[in-house]
Amino acid sequence: MNDSIKKRILVIEDEKHIAEGLKLNLSLQGYDVTVAENGNTGLKTWKSWQPDLIVLDIMLPGIDGLSVLRSIRLEDERIPILILSAKAETDYKVKGLAYGVDDYLTKPFSLEEFLLRVDRLLTRLSWYEENGMGNAGDGRGQNIHTFGDNRIDFSTLIAHGPQGEIQLTDQEAKLLKLFVTNPGKPLSRQKLLEIGWGYTRGTTTRTVDNFIVRFRKYFEKNPKKPVHFRSLRSIGYVFYSNPETR
Amino acid sequence: MTRSGWLFHPILILIFSILALGTSLFLYIYWYIEASTGLKSLVKRFNIDAGQVLESQTWVVILVLSILVGIIFMGIFIIFVYNVKTLQLYRLQHNFINSFTHELKTPVTALKLYLETFAKHELSREDQLKYIQYMLYDTGRLSDDINRILNLAQIESKSYGGELETHHLENAINRFLKNNSRYFQHCRISVSNPAGNAYLYLINPSLFNMLLMNILTNAVKYNNSKLPEIEISFEEKGKKLYISFKDNGIGIDKTEKKKIFKKFYQVGSSDDMSARGSGLGLYLVEHIARIHKGRIMMDSPGLGKGSTFTLILPLKYSL
User: Fold this and answer.
1) What is the complex's ipTM, to 2 decimals?
2) Contact (CB<8Å) A58/B131
């Protein structure tokens, strides 16, 4: 560590003993540590506290760890995330890595190995910062996405559609990003809620429908006959970037 | 998915075998009648004594054939049902192994973490004691898990139930709560017995405690409220005693209600990682209730609305 400010680490882990053990060790290493015991508070703490690294468990009550990961990656591509999970199957590792995790350790893990990996991830992050490639936290970068005659600039949150220029809200941008990064993949209302809002089960899914109505108004030539944001009966929605070629 | 393929395969085989069986029955009868009419015409032509030929037995033959084919059909059907059930159990067992390894790995992870911390750092005595408490708790958790598996084997082999003692149920519950208060520190549990009767029952104390432990820890574990609450109440209805455990937990969907007492069954699935625990708890609870000549019921108004487990025992008063 080459700076006077302590690096911040957020631990999202529901098993109290493991969480506290991690906190103890990371604090002894000189990090500033906060523990969140479920996905929901984890996401909230991530937003308000802006940690430099996140240690994430997969089996969490409420929103599972992979949804937390996807939710974070929608807004921040750069923050190092290390998954700590009892799931040792390659399937889970592949899934985690595909959703953009930086490292994956299976429980029970070796303390020394864990600390070294954390240290390595943070060192690498500080290189980026020295090169001026990252401006603390916000990794949106150059993000312009086009589909059909529409163009969305995720860095300025300005979109161009059939109706002209539209200023997107943060929430709209987040959900849009989820759609455009998963073209052709069906997304259930529940997954959309979990990833887009960080809600748990039991919350109304009507919210998602309202956003889709808005997106169709923004980006579809004929909102009544959508080609990009299509409904899938009893499943949810699917986004097509080039509806003709599918 | 290949899993649904698994299911359809035996059904197709069943249908084909039934069709083949039906056709063969039809053909047996058809050929038999054909042969016997041929014989009859022979008998007529050559003027042989009709009594010598098996004429009168046509219907007997048809009946016997039908019965035999019926038995074969039943056999195939039973094998089919058996096969489907085994497949189901296999799938549940797979689920169980998946989530139970998680259940075992968690305390091991915590233990390893603290032991390595102790090896690496010099901690103050105060901290040491705190973390040693944690480790003891985790060792307890680990041995509980192991016991649960062993108990399962014992209860299933029905060697249990022999060591029955007479206990005052309300006192037994209160005693259990007192002895295990460390599990229920952050919740409110109330016991009420409005009728005020003393219920003396022959119970196996360790099994009965296991039943209480499973129901109560479930109520706390599957609970998102700030303060988990459990109301235990005794009620007499007809010739039965109802002991209900009402919680303010996450409740359960109607579709899952019937399945929760199945061996290895868990709400949620191991694939999306929403399943937790061993899937054995409630299966054990049901078995224990049965050993005590009672049964267990569960009711929930729906997800997020809490649930009520009711232990129903035949009504007996104290002398």
Assistant:
1) 0.71
2) no
